[in-house]
Design goal:
The protein has about 160 residues and is of the alpha/beta class. It is built from five helices and five strands, in the order βαβαβαβαβα. Keywords: Cytoplasm, Methyltransferase, rRNA processing, S-adenosyl-L-methionine, Transferase.
Length: about 160
């Protein structure tokens, strides 16, 4: 399986980079992993609705340029589907079984994902109704993808 995580924003925190590197190393046994880091759109704090949509559209355009037609896209969004680790594992297994060898998880910027990215997505995923920094979501997502592979292979992993 070829899995990419397409994310808006640069990762700056050393401790998050270390955690991400650790899970990328672990995941290399199961899949070809790629992290695509795209620049966020610079914007002032107080934006109008129209300005917020424009920022999301610009970021969305960058995201869509990185997605090929044969890629199964899973958008991370607060309003996405809540799944257990076992349900995510089952979905990953189903994708692999039915020939979806390219999977992209998409993490938007601080304002979320554009309508165009949501329309292009084949599925959505929510980790919580809470808001998390998108940099932290990368680490959480990688851990859950790793956990999914361990579950699917009946390999032990802490609960």
């Amino acid at each position: 399986m070829n899995i990419s995580i397409i994310s808006i924003g640069k990762l700056k925190e050393k401790y998050l980079k270390q955690g991400i590197d650790e899970y990328l190393k672990r995941l290399s046994l199961y899949a070809k992993m790629e992290i695509v880091e795209l620049p966020d759109e610079k914007a002032p704090e107080n934006l109008s609705e129209a300005e917020m949509e424009m920022v999301k559209e610009k970021e969305g355009k960058r995201i869509l340029e990185k997605i090929s037609d044969d890629t199964h896209v899973i958008a991370l969004a607060i309003q996405g589907k809540l799944r257990s680790s076992e349900e995510l594992a089952k979905e990953m297994d189903r994708l692999a079984t039915y020939g979806k060898s390219k999977v992209a998880f998409v993490i938007g910027g601080s304002l979320g994902l554009s309508d165009a990215v949501m329309k292009r997505s084949n599925d959505t995923l929510s980790f919580s109704k809470m808001t998390f920094p998108h940099q932290l979501m990368r680490l959480i997502l990688l851990e859950q993808v790793y956990r999914a592979f361990r579950i699917n292979r009946n390999e032990p992993y802490h609960k």
